[in-house]
Amino acid sequence: MAKGRHRARGLTEGQAAAVLLLPFLAVYAAFLVYPFLNGVWISLHDWNLLAVAFNPDAREFIGAENYIRTLWGRNIEWGLFASPVMQTGGVLGIGLAFFGYRSGRLTRATALALGIAGALFFLMPGFHPGEGGRWYDRRFWPTVGNTITFVALAVPGVTLTALILAAALDGETRAKAVLRTVFFLSQVLSVTVVTLIWQIMFSPRQGLIANVAQALGGSPIVWLTDQQLAMAAIVITTIWWSLGIAMILFLAGIQDISKDIYEAAAIDNARGIRAFWYITLPNLKRTITLVVVLQIILHFQVFGQAHLMTQGGPNDSTQVLVRYIYQTAFRDSELGKASAMAVVLFLIMGAFSLVQFILGREGDER
Amino acid sequence: MKHVLIGTALAATAVTGATAQEVTLGRFFGACEDAGTDTTASVGEACIIQSIINAADAELDGITVTTLPTDWGNYYDQVIAAYAGGEPPDVHVMHRHRVPQFAGLGALAELSGDLEAAGIDVSDWAPAALDAVSFEGGIYGVPMDFHANLWHVNMEIMEAAGLVAEDGSPILPSSPEELLEHAAMVEAATGHDYLAADFAQFPIGVRLVLSLMWQQGENIFTEDGTATIDTEAARNAVTTITQLFDAGHADPQLNYADSQQAFLNGEAAVLVNGTWVVDFYSAEAANPDVALSDYYVADFPTLFAEGATWADSHMWAIPASLKRDDPETYAAALQVLAFINAHNIDWARTGHMAVRNSVLASEAYAALPHRDEYTGTASIARDTPAAENYGAIQDVLNRELQAIWLTGKPVGDALSDAELEVQDLLDG
């Protein structure tokens, strides 16, 4: 007995925590930190995937060359009106942050995040190749743009749909329980199955959508080879596929809200949509932040939908970053450049998540 | 008792070790679930190749052949990743245009010293077939076919438009202008499209434009590595096709499956597709439920100065590491290649052209359906240009051509963009 007490005393709280954390940290270091650092290391080399497999000396340290070849170009200039729409948006963001903070409507962190985002939107699109100049990689930035467009459409799409479904399906009736399962079911399918289903849905010859359109007297739309609609088709597929988890998180959040608040509100005649607006939504703020951050991280990594449904086409309009990284690494064997792109993707995802995280904390500080 | 047990175990190991030499095999062509082992009855690329593989598995003593799961669209990515990971399949199929990439790195086994012992007679290969698997003086594979783009023709539509010659063959255009005239005649007589092809997904449009450039004596890049895409010849080739879209005689938005369906449904007079579907379309044309009933296979017509059509070869290769590290499996892998080589006539049933002289000269080959209709193809077949990263170059061309016909990008812009990017790829 005495011995046992002695042992317990011998292990401080910090030591106990270290012992308990060790297994996780070991796995984390071996399977996440090490591969990540290895990727950064590879990105500093001219590294041909196939050539290095047969001759380990075939790689060459080239410093930041891969980053320059990916991000930069010859005779790149910065202009105030190179991309008026995005740059104006950036200026508006900076202005909003400034006046929002001055008037006390925004917290300091939020204003800072918004200001930095605005500055980036003002500065980044201003770069363009000057006379006789060109981007070294002409596809990289348009691909970044496509990926951001996809995230900008898919994240609100999933969040809003899941929120509405969660609010509608919260309750104890049998029908709602069945419908919850039905809406969650798509989540368990693999991307190959999902894209197969939607390729058939979108097909202008045998697709459900085309058949319905024809029955109503319309002409079938060729979704996947239309420059305007291809991205929309991929977003629709993604929303259908990935709203399950978001819906479950929202349902958990909604069920966490005390019923007393709804009862009190009902006395003040706030029911239905008004209760949803004034009680459910404010109380779900943390859940919404969580869902949005998770979705941003998830959807920046979109690959299967674009790869299998449109092959990045037509005219690269659905080419996304992970697919470009995949092609660079495995089709072209340029592992070094692909790793550099992956590091850039990591930074972009990190920055967006950070901004969202700071914005989401606003409510807690007030 | 103990001795008996150990003895039995040893004997069992010896027996299984001697009998079950497993050969893993990687291939594209698609999946066929119930191919069986009858190599003479299967239809379509996937089932014919799988029936040959199943027969090799059943008939070769002491060798089991395991077909690895692969996917057509990502096949080369998978093979490259497998090589990089040090575990490539023991035998795998590939295209001739990939030989510089793989053999150049030392990935493939040089086979010339071992083929004869395995029962493969190299002198029976057609000269072009030997050429297809040769690289810097060595032999890096066993050729299986020549394949090329053909014009698959619906004779019923051609007849309605008055485009059938006295000998019963279709009258095909001999210039871009005539192509447009014929298309208008088909439209007037039947209301159908003249031409269908996959312009929206796989690089069939690229192969079409390549053929039309070659017909003008031009290519997409020179031998010293200069891209020549923003040229008069390329513009002529592209406008030959876009004139059909502009006049409504072809639909650029159809992908592979949809364009094939349009042809089988009798909605297009001509489908541009490869040799690999001849037996499948013949079988479909014989099916009373399919609209296509009078099917003809024509050589790719000459619209400019000289005849030319896109072509390539399928071949089987063995990794260099297998020859070096595992002689037993290497010997078994060679047996599998010899078996496939011996069944060249079965593979030719798909519609592909055979590679062995003895097969090419055989009556069985001449008697294959529609074979006499495209005998000219062998002499106009042109290879994909050799480049280490041809996969990426083809993707650039496919993207820019699709930009022209799917998104209305001006031809000049698309060709100059394509030339810039292909030059980047050629420069490495």
Question: What's the short version?
Answer:
The complex is a heterodimer of chains A (366) and B (428). Chain A is mainly alpha-helical and 366 residues long.
Question: What keyword list fits this structure?
Answer:
heterodimer; A: 366 residues; mainly alpha; MetI-like fold; two-stranded antiparallel ribbon; 17 helices; 4 strands; 5% strand; globular; B: 428 residues; alpha/beta; D-Maltodextrin-Binding Protein, domain 2; 2 domains; nine-stranded mixed beta sheet; two-stranded antiparallel sheet; 19 helices; 11 strands; 45% helix
Report on the architecture of this protein:
The complex is a heterodimer of chains A (366) and B (428). With 366 residues, chain A is mainly alpha-helical. Among the domains of chain A are: 78-135; 140-332, MetI-like fold (Orthogonal Bundle), CATH 1.10.3720. Chain A has 17 helices and four strands. Chain A has a two-stranded antiparallel sheet. A two-stranded antiparallel ribbon of chain A has the order 3-4. In chain A, helix 5 packs antiparallel against helix 6 (108-123), helix 6 packs antiparallel against helix 17 (335-365) and helix 7 runs antiparallel to helix 14. Chain A is globular, with a radius of gyration of 25 Å. The model of chain A has no long low-confidence stretch (mean pLDDT 89). Chain B is built from 19 helices and eleven strands. Chain B has helices spanning 2-19, 45-59, 75-84, 99-104, 127-133, 155-160, 176-190, 204-214, 232-246, 256-264, 278-285, 320-325, 327-342, 344-348, 357-360, 363-366, 377-380, 390-407, 411-427; strands at residues 21-26, 63-67, 91-95, 134-135, 138-139, 142-154, 193-196, 268-274, 295-298, 309-317, 381-383. In chain B, the strands form two sheets. In chain B, strands 1, 2, 3, 6, 7, 8, 9, 10 and 11 form a nine-stranded mixed beta sheet that branches. In chain B, helix 7 runs parallel beside helix 9, helix 8 packs across helix 9 and helix 18 runs antiparallel to helix 19. The relative contact order of chain B is 0.16.
